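Technical note accompanying the year-one report. For the benefit of new consortium partners, we illustrate the data format agreed upon in the data management plan: each record pairs a sequence with a structure-token string. No post-processing was applied to the example shown here.
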Amino acid sequence: MKAILAHLNHNRGFIYANVIALFLLANGVASAWNCRWDWSRDRLNSVTPSTLKVLGALKDPVLVEAYISADLPGELKSQISPILSQLDEIGRVAGSRVKLRVVNPDSDEKRQAAEQRGVQGIPIEQARVDEISQRLAYFGVYIQTGDKSAVLNLVEQGALISDFEFRFLREIKRLTRKEGPSGLGYLKVAGTSDTRRWQSYQDQDKDNMYFFRAMLEEQFGTIPDVDLNAPIGTEVETLLIVGQPRLDDKQAYYLDQFIMRGGNLICMLKGFDFDLQQPDPRMGRMNPGQGFTNVNREDLDRLNRVFGHYGILLNGEIIFEPGLPTPESGQYAQPVPNPAWAFYSREGGNVVSEVPSVKNIQQLVLPWFSSLEIKPESQPNVKFTPILLSTPEGIAKEAASTGLREMQNLGRQPDDVPVGAPRKLAVFAQGQFQSAFSEKDIPKGEDKALFRSGQSGATQSSILVISTPYLVSDIFLRNQANMQIFMLNQAFAMNLIEFTQGDTDLSEARSRVQGIDFISPILPGSEKATKWFERLFTWFHVLLIPVGLAIYGWRRLSTRHQRRGLQEAK
């Protein structure tokens, strides 16, 4: 055998045959290996792990027909390119679970097929040297599974969407979702924010969140109001509490027993209030005029008596971030910083949690917020995890003017003392809670036999508290600049709501939101140093090129004269 192998090792024909076989085998393996690299800044040409999670859970095949026109102007072609790349990637990772067809409606037959699927043509103009022509272009994706179907329009408000992967996966989940209650409820008692449908421009105010609730219902299903006049039904698994609810003893008891049976709370709480009076007409954001903040101690103490039993207290103060103000664009010639709207990021150390639904969040804007305290000793079987932290340079005020000019002067007065250590702004608590009531404290008329003094067995609950009720307020929707902030914040809030529901499928795709640019402000006390640096920076660039060229020319001339002198000496 050794002799045969030795002979084959020196046989050129055998070696060449093995090389060819190895080459064909390597090509076969490479063709089956799904490997691509996306080098774009925002990774817009690839998909996230959310696609693998959602498509991997499909039980029935899905038909996807993308009707996208190919003959487009250069700008539109560059904008549609990431969507085509993501569709191609979806087809690769889905395998046989998704039947994908990308159709260019360039004939009457294909255009008719698109319109039969519900994809309508959009007129676009194309300017040439001698004329301006108008024609129909198609931008839509038809999705069908079983007897359910949907059309995903790729154009919204006159622009191509930038979050195609998330919207596509959301439609898949909606089509494959089983009919039934959403599992969510919205607390509607005195002091909570409204969710009324807009009747006028004024309804889009800071204390209304109709749009965010509509988004939740679009994804999860109908969300009933909960008034706590009776025990919360078993169809509600997670209760949303927004604002500063004023609960009486019986309402607090029903809320407590909801937690004891395993219910979850998502709380966006108000530590203070203010009026938006005499707004600056130049500002497109929630810019107060000369209003004043107000901490209602009676209502705040009542709220803390309820939530303090579960280990979380809300402080009656306003936190300002002079070093991280959100840039106000509006109609100003240049962005204007607003320290009441804090620009927080994971890179800056403000988003600190590794909770699966939060770890992909890179930015958010926290508007008009307080701080939180946690009391772990109140609930020894509960783990408390901070999610958001302020900076040590933040300034806490119990009362302050809401005028933009006054807020921009914060940090310049002797009594504007930084907090010194990061303060908790959002906290996630999970574990086995103990009741805030005892048998002797049960409200009159309630059945003591149904009272739960704590959670037993494997029953656990989650309580998320965020120290502002304005995170996803309707006020964001008044202009396009605000809408970008709303998209950042809703990704954060929706991911956490899904997490409490035991679902993280869409968290990565939803978190891929275009960020906003942060403009570092001139901090109080550094004006002189900043101006000196600006002058130095300006003169450095003004003189760098001329001085460099002068030195280079002098060296060339000196070298030339030296060589000429040597030649003459010879």
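Partners are asked to follow this layout when depositing records. The first strand starts at residue 62 and ends at 68.
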